[in-house]
Amino acid sequence: MRSFNFYKYHLFPSLLIAISLIIFYGCGSGNKDKPDTAGINMPYNKVLKPAGKMIIFGDSALENHALDVALSPDKKYIAVEERYSVLVLDAGKDSILFSYSVRDNIPHTANTYSGILWVNIRGKSTLFWSARNTVFRAIWDSLKLSVINTYHFDPEGEARASLPNELVFSDSDGHPVLYIVLNGNDRLVKLDLDTGTVLWQSHTGLAPYGVVSAAGKLYVTNWSGSVPTEGTPATAGIPWGNASVDSVTGSVNSGTVSVIDPETGKVIRELPTGLHPNDLVASPDGKFVYVANGNDDYISVIRTESDHVVEKISVRLMQENNPYFGDSPNGLAISSDGKTLYVANGMDNAIAVVALGEKASSGGTEGKSKLTGFIPTGAYPGGIALAEDMKKMYVANIEGLGARTLFTGMHAKGKAPSSRGAYNAHKMLAGLSIIPLPNQPQLASWTITVRETNRMNRVKMASLLPRKDCKPVPVPERVGEPSVFKHVIYIIKENRTYDQVLGDMKQGDGDTSLCAFGKEVTPNTHKLTEQYVLLDRYEASGKCSAEGHLWTDASIVTDYIEKNVRAWFRSYTHVLYDAMAYPKTGFIWDNALDHGKSVRIYGEASVPTGYGNKKWADIYHDYLAGKPVPFENKTTIDRVRGILSQSYPAYDSHNFPDIMRAHAFIEDLHRYEKMDGDALPNLIVMALPNDHTAGTSPNHPTPRAMVADNDLALGQIIEALTRSRFWKNTVVFVTEDDSQAGWDHVSAYRTVALVISPYSRLGKTVSTRYNQTSMIHTIEQILGLPPMNIEDATADLMTGAFSDTPDYTPYTHEKNRIPLDEMNPPATTLTGKDLYFAKESARLAVLGIDAGEDDLMNRIIWHSFRREAPYPAHLAGKDDDD
Question: HSE (CB half, 13 Å, CA atoms) of 747?
Fold first, then answer.
């Protein structure tokens, strides 16, 4: 299969937009029975082969995301809401006419989830859209977009942002008003557009998202359902409140729609829907409202006469043979005749097309609504706008074509720039699909394409029953067949690219010019990959830790994560403390426990508390002196609480050395060895986070010292395991949670992974394309666990990392070559950029690992290693040091 790994673009500095019109042939022409084989590989088993054409745009220094799209009332123009900008296109020529930068006008802000609205007000073509605490009002004059008003909404209660989102305009009495969902404040407000006065505020459910007007009422979706009452069986924290949750997985288990009187703001009723209801749309005659349930893979149809759900329409891909969750319906559009519903299935990278039945449409076909096919799009489609007069649709692809912007001039300290260029996970352009509305033969062809690009042939393989009398092998072909392994150790590290650590390995496809933490810093990582297996095409499935820990722990990200991507308005979910982020199918530890396996968690999904004001040096020297350091690990997930180690420090802090973590685990390992029987848990999930580093923060070690600490800890853990009585039936998987903090010449997603076992002493390089879902699927297959969702169900097994012949030779760890207490200098000794980055590093250290300011941390590490060279101007987003 041919794949495309980079964008070609033209830069227009005056607009801060990189633009390219990419036309994909084959999905819309040629042989209808045999789809084109070209495509773009994504790092989670999917291939992109978008129908129609795509406009690629954005500030090349940023991670850009197209969120929503709207057609002008005269149908001449299209507006696209992007995370940092709003674009206007000529709908006839599909060309960009103008770009408005939100960041240039309100610093440090970003557009929220969706809801761009285009209306006429007293003869003026008017656009509304929402940012963190602001609603923008702008006039389009066919040449430029001019903001004439901004409406500010303060956060209320515990909220840190009011988060205005979707909007409804009304001027039925000649008096223009705007209804605005405030996602952060749990409110719907009515705004007088002439005076700017709030006429009323109405309480909604938790985290309202969408709003639509139908049958003289307003319908509002609530991501987290109703506000819990006394006696609610289980609740857990979401940002700025509590929600009803599943007692096992900890995920939100309620979704609702509030029905509100537009005159008074009175809540008429609250209707239960599926999980994570997001976008909603009304039928043209107002008799029906359709709700996309992002965490339930179906559409709720509400009849507005009775305000009851009258039909549930599954939009799952190949639903007749596919039992697995993971389509993420999140955007809707309806045809002008009210007979066809278009649904943006985010994780399918496709639009589902539904022929509405008699219960769901006044003009519907006899019987139930029917899913008629799928249209391939870019990555994670969100907003949809229909231009039926021109027989096409516009789709905002939240993940575009992935992070594939190629830059030149990148290199580590003292090395010549790479001639091949490099990628970074946060350098990504946005994508707008322009797709002709298909006839039935074309839709049938595109449906074949969508099934193939989603690898649906693997669903059947994941569901095959085990065969009898199979010989134990490292990775069984079917769930339930025997493995030689009884114990899996799953270690999750932080943020490095392959080239950043292993770029100096001649055995693999590395680039030494990008290698910042090579063999001198990471001797154990290098030795392990030399003695066992070097994986030089392994990729992280997400772009940062808020995405990464969902991929590593649950093998999927939810719509909530995709809607917050890069802005992280409500939370940055790397330590799993926001119940809205979790999938209903739970985590790898839930899967293991549900199938009778023993589990222990070391540091994952938790934070350390109770260690007072101790700094890194205090804890490090106490550890060396054998003095106990008091702390308590805390988690918001009930099930984790019972399997969480309290001797191994969790990881939302840079103050605990990883060798202290390794020591705690090894002590437990020795205790397991003294117990009767096979006492080691079947699954151990372990966070080993210090390769993240604390940047140049005073009171912390240098970046290379923290990476060296992480490497030494890994070596110590592996040595202890290989010398234990459990080693003959134990396998260790190691992955970074993401690849965001560096550059790589092959892929923005390529990262470091290790497979270590008696059956993995191969001493060779494996260049098969694997990713984090492959690792999860392999762990499940070894332990006899079924897939959790569609992502691990369709992932390749990592069979290439194993042989049939064991080698039980124990591993001997390498000592660190960098002093672990090589400290960053105190701020009082610094000036200029050294001082600036030290202060910023200290601020990020207080906020904890991965505060969401990834570009800043990249700058800090760049400066640490390349003091003599400024951060490349073409990579630099706006920052206070510019």
Answer: 28
